[in-house]
Amino acid sequence: MSGTESVATSAAPGDKDTSFFGQPRSLATVFGVEMWERFSFYGMQGILLIYMYFTVAEGGLGIDKAVATGIVGAYGGTVYLCTILGAWLADRLLGSERVLFYSAIIIMAGHIALAVLPNVWGLGVGLILVALGSGGLKANATAIVGTLYAPGDLRRDAGFSIFYLGINVGAFLGPLITGFLQSNVGFHWGFGAAAVGMAIGLTQYSFGRKRLPESSKIVANPLPRNRYGLVVGIGIAGIVVIVALVLLGVINARNLASVVIIVTLVAAVAYFFVIVSSHRITADDRSRVLSFIPLFIVNVGFWSLYQQQFTVLTIYSDERLNRMIGGWEMPISWVNSINPVFVIILSGVFAAIWTKLGPRQPSAPVKFALGAIVMGIAFLLFLPWANGAPNSTPLIAIVLILLVFTIAEMFISPPGLSVTTKLAPESFHTQMVALYFLSVALGTSIAGWLAQFYDPTNEVPYFTILGFIAIALGIALLLAVKPVLALMRGVR
Hints:
By secondary structure, the protein is mainly α. The protein folds into two domains: 20-223, Growth Hormone, Chain: A (Up-down Bundle), CATH 1.20.1250; 255-492, Growth Hormone, Chain: A. It is built from 17 helices and two strands. A two-stranded antiparallel sheet has the order 1-2. α2 packs antiparallel against α15 (429-450), α3 (96-116) runs antiparallel to α6 (187-208) and α9 crosses α17. Keywords: Cell membrane, Membrane, Transmembrane, Transmembrane helix, Transport.
């Protein structure tokens, strides 16, 4: 979700428009581009890892599995790092609507590069473009949805629910289409389908963007003209440094995940320091920011396990899972379509539960703790089939394990940004949301780094250690709920 969600300060054009399931017509425009972006994103990601480690004879690149999983983790972490860049560009230079439009073009270009450019160069160009574009789109789509509703519009929550549905419809369909094409005609056809999906989303958005409210195009905090040169210079210098480090071998495919982890960790520490040491916040603000630290740590732990759906679980689905249904073998990437189905079902169930409980619902620290514990249990559920023969794990086992993954997600992911915005000092609202995305970026990068330790011939230590670490993190937060709530100063 976006770190730049804004609330329109005046009546939005869609106030009396109910042409899209009772919502403003423009919601269909943003819904569509987000759905097709998620279709392309998860469709590509569903076949990305196997494209890297499959042999050249199988249509892949023949990259070592440990290196390939590290690249996937680094790529995923970079997507979330780029949300911060996307938010900055919207706030200081272009506005959310323009950043979203240009980001969609960049994403499509990235998928085209993966589809038509050969070898590792095509992989590198494609992933860089998709990461930049996805970060920009992810950071601003939610902000634009927020501009469609005037303050107090009771349709707002329902509108975001429909928007969230679009995300998961795209995430469900993407791996099905790209996986089918990869299995039957080749990887590049799968990447091509992701490009076509993004092109469809971009086309419908191009027709509908004129109807979006002017508030979606506002630059909230314009960068002074006399600082343009400085920003461009910093950007060019950063690119030169990165290119030099790559050419000198300091940054390479084998340590890419570690590099992203270090960069993200440094950025997070810097963000915390800047906010806590600021003279513009009150004592209560400072206390609330400090209370976010244990939530940040637990969130990192959660995502470092959850995002292994695209690393370890992909290898597991290839080597351990019995994907035969009758006489037909299910494509590997189709496993990635299971989670979105459960998200669609359970998001409504959990929303109803929290609504029913009202003020009696668990506090944010308890939800985070339960999410980490359930995620750890999900990893322990792999143990009954650990060290089995090739393709010996029944498909129903993975379905049930992914159900537990999704239950964990419902405890920790939807409340994440909500509590972050509640704890954020008024002067540092965007920076606090950036911190939330940094925790996701850090966890996603760690997921890729951890996967190098996964050994299909000796799975018990891997699933056991990580499962119990997640459970221990959750229990530690449960034991610290009272002091954390005290630091939160009335926020739950």
